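Format notes (please read before filing issues)

Several people have asked whether sequences and structure tokens are stored in separate files. They are not. Every record keeps both together, in the order shown below: the sequence lines, then the token lines. Line labels are part of the format and must not be stripped during preprocessing.
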Amino acid sequence: MENSFKNIIDQSRSILILLPLKPYFDQVAAGLSLYLALKEQKNVQIVSPSPITVEFNRLIGVNKISQDMGNKNLVIKFTDYKANDIERVSYDIEEGQFKLTVIPKQQANPPLKEQIDLSYSGILVDSVIIIGGANESHFPSISSQDFIDANVVHIGIKDISLTSGRSYLSFSRPASSISEVVFGLLKESGIYYDSDIATNLLMGIDESTQSLNSPSVNADTFSAVSELMKIGGKRLNTQAPLERSSYPVGSIPGVQWRTQPTKQINQAEIQPKNSFTNPEEEDESQNPPKDWLSPKIYKGTSIS
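Then the structure lines:
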């Protein structure tokens, strides 16, 4: 029980979720779902060493994925400002608040607010959770000295090989997708997940299994899908491309919509044509005698 996933999460104040190089959709969906589930109770960061491309934009919270890894030291940098124009830097503590003062040289302008660039260097974490991957080359930063005292946890559907000999805890298990594995860990650990997390996990499962058509799908997969849908998760088609005609007019920013002029339709044009009608009969149908269009009066000699 000591090395259970719940125990590791409970004992960690700061957690880094690390995606592999060039991550697959399922890996991003699984990692992002885990991030959303932990962010309310832990100091958690999700990092991808590769840029997040447009294909991942349908995932909820994708803007929280960063390429920069750091949470230890705050770095303040002035962009497009001459360092020689600064006379000195001082700091004060006023009413318990830290105040940093940058004093420019005489006749030099101070840095503008727009020139202030804030970032972090170094990272301080208790646990690093690596998602997917097959070996250490998929996680170049895992050998960093910043992680020397951190727990390394692997989540996937296959075991990973760390050639550096670094010890790690594996929560990998055979499944249809990593998203299914993450769902199982959240459920077993009693970690709260909502409809947004469920939707991300469903998209990961669908993408990895070709909409549940993969041979890797089994009863556990359908059970996971059922439970995720019960709490409000939405199954979105991640395979079919979205055509512009699928959107309402004006819903795509920057697209100029052209409306076609309305064509006046002659009544004769919408009348069905008999494929066996000869040309002469067809001409008569297009130009019928005038009395055809007048009201008809029928007379009878007897009533039956």
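For reference, the curators noted about this record: The chain has a mean pLDDT of 80. Residues 5-70+123-191 form a domain with the inorganic pyrophosphatase (n-terminal core) fold (CATH 3.90.1640.10).
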